[in-house]
Amino acid sequence: MEDQLNTLFATFDSEEVTFFADLILPIPVPRLFTYRVPRGMADLVKIGARVIVPFGKNNSRVMTAIVARLHNSPPTAYQARYISEVLDEYPLVTGYQLELFRWMAEYYMCCVGEVMNVALPSGLKISSQSKVQYNPDFDYPELLTEFEEVLLTELKKHPALSYEELGRLAGEGSNVPALIKSLVGKKAVIVFEEVREKYIPKMIRKVRLHTNYEEREQLLVLLNRLEKLPKQQEVVMRYLRHVPVQMNPSLNQKGLDKTILNQDDEISQSSLTTLVKNGVFETFEIIQPRFSDTLSPQVEIKLTDYQRSASENIMKQFEQQNIVLLHGITGSGKTEVYIDLIQQALASGTQVLYLLPEIALTAQIVVRLQRVFGDKMGIYHSKFSDNERVEVWKGVVSGQYQFVVGVRSSVFLPFDNLGLIIVDEEHETSYKQHDPAPRYHARDVAMMLAHWQQAKVLLGSATPSLETYYQAKLGRYGLVELFQRFGDATLPNILLVNTQQEKRQKLMKHEFSSVLYTALEMNMERKEQSILFQNRRGYSPYMQCEDCDWTAECNNCAVSLTYHQRDAELRCHYCGHKDPVPRTCPACGSTKVRTIGFGTEKLEDQLQIFFPGSRVLRMDLDTTRAKNAYQQIIQEFESGQVDILVGTQMITKGLDFDNVSLVGIFDADRLIHFPDFRATERAFQMLTQVSGRAGRRAGRQGTVLIQTANPQQPILQKIITNDYKGLFEEEIQERQDFNYPPFSRLIKLTVRHTDKITSSKAAQRLADELTDALGSSRVLGPEEPLVERIRNQFLFDILVKIERDKVNVKAVKSYIQERINDILTDKGLRQVSIIADVDCL
């Protein structure tokens, strides 16, 4: 930035220069906006810094923007407005990040402002609040109503009031917006926007003795003087017990947390206030980090011979390859290998990013990593508050955190010296963002980020994605395999339970086969733990009338409502719509309204009936909404307080529990027969991963029971034998035959409109234009998706398949965007929205 300014100053040495800044604004518009830099801010505005700017008609909105470029060329299409304020003394967004924003906008067919909006934690984006103040030029009191006159009198007593504060003055039931509109119309008040930054540092109020009393002699004089004021003397004595000033006067400068004195019942708060007023104590505030700074490394990791061999092999392959796949079976100790590589990277002076697919997984792994790295490690995920995420962001900028562990949004952190990125469980679909734009895949973004910073990428998984394994087999990625479980533990014994046969013999207990029921019973007798997997939350997927077949459906979406027993409601998992549970059928009035199917909540309920003495916990989206819910559930299960953990796919990913010897899997057939070309791969990954939670302790083989209506399915046989390579060979041939990834790139275009005919018309037009240019073999659709209406919008999907080696993908994307723009500017189709999902899953 300084070099850029020096060049500009040298060029225009003899004349006064007006600078302009191209800014990224967090709005879905495909261009930057040019603003004028006020002369007084010329030295303050820097590339990568945040600024506040007015936006919209009559400058009605206030926005946070990022400076992307500085120059001295005014815009030709409009009059440049002035930047209002500079927020940062030093840039909080690096050059690498700006490059990443631009690349993501182009690659994922969205706007750079949309990338910025997702990338920056909301705590780094300012907010504005409307304020009302008395207009000193108001000269027409006769225009006011009696109530307005009273309100204006109160308003004169304050510099300004918010709408909320004004509402309290006006009283309950008052129409505040109408009242303000009336006063503005009479020019009695002025409405303005007060801009404030959302991030608020955590402040600690402290007290300390005045410097006059730090020396021993003055302190004795003070205590003697307070002999007749015992309560005040006790405050001073209590402070000295915590802060031994007489032994070391320098300790006094750090002071004492005021809450420590306030919590003491023997301390008179009025006495403390008096001592402050009389100059004996002084109060001050300090910024307190929200993350503990007292952690220190406690554990030294020792690798086994085969882990050491894997680590050395990875480092050797990094000499030739920038990306290496670590294919290690569940329980093989991949985390210890990661830790060894992280230590080597940090020792070389570079930064490390460790990506995990789920917050649930961070809760357990973070504890293990903190024992090794202490407070050198930052943690970044969506369950943290805005303020906590801002502190991690600023900690990366300042160099406080050289190592960060987090979920997919961590790729946006302001790294500028990355040496290593680890993508654990790289196959996981959680790395893909679906809404809002950018619809990015964190694994792929991480690779691009590493490319720019010349860092290495390690992809780890027991069940790699076919695309990743294919690249490794071609030699484009390095490949290291780890097929021995840690500590000589063995892979679990996987058994198939025929539910059709159990039903015929009437052995089923609701959703539980007799085999699973007996295994759970025996497991609890041995004081061992069990995990049950059902990839559907709620109590039942739908409610239905036995007499007329009426089904409870969402008013806004073409899906059934899921029954949640604990909240006694029917809920849509797409739009959040809720209905009360009907006592009778709304269609025919019958009382025979029953729940159909089962979810995790129903399994939890049945377990508590079957095993009344058992301790059951459920881990799904409904039970983990609170900030620390994941951590609490995992801690309770890990400590042995829980016998059975029931959960959705979040329990399948990398969790490590020594005492789990049984895993039960429900509804495996639904996973296998899902209508998607990746269904077989996904079923193998999910069932293998959840099976890997069993028997992770040496000397005890775990058991996995998969309930299925068809035990002869080939995919189940591959899961039993852990035959990933057999799965790969079959699936990769099918992908090649039908031109699916990794042999092509997929772009899904979803057309949406509240009118089905309009949506269909726009989708057909887009598909026809694309087919004319690209050919019918590359364009599939339009067709209605499985859920054809969401939030009262009718959906049509078009799938574009582009060969990796024969077609210019960038040109195709540009052509698709042109055709989309044509439709969106058509008068009859302007209300249509078209969503592009590049590399869709």
UniProtKB/TrEMBL annotation:
Keyword annotations: ATP-binding, DNA replication, DNA-binding, Helicase, Hydrolase, Isomerase, Metal-binding, Nucleotide-binding, Primosome, Zinc
Cofactors (names): Zn(2+)
Top-level taxonomic group: Bacteria
Co-factor binding comment: Binds 2 zinc ions per subunit.
GO molecular function, one term: zinc ion binding
Gene3D superfamilies for the chain: P-loop containing nucleotide triphosphate hydrolases (3.40.50.300), PriA, 3(prime) DNA-binding domain (3.40.1440.60)
Role according to the record: Initiates the restart of stalled replication forks, which reloads the replicative helicase on sites other than the origin of replication. Recognizes and binds to abandoned replication forks and remodels them to uncover a helicase loading site. Promotes assembly of the primosome at these replication forks.
Protein name, per record: Replication restart protein PriA
Organism per entry: Spirosoma profusum
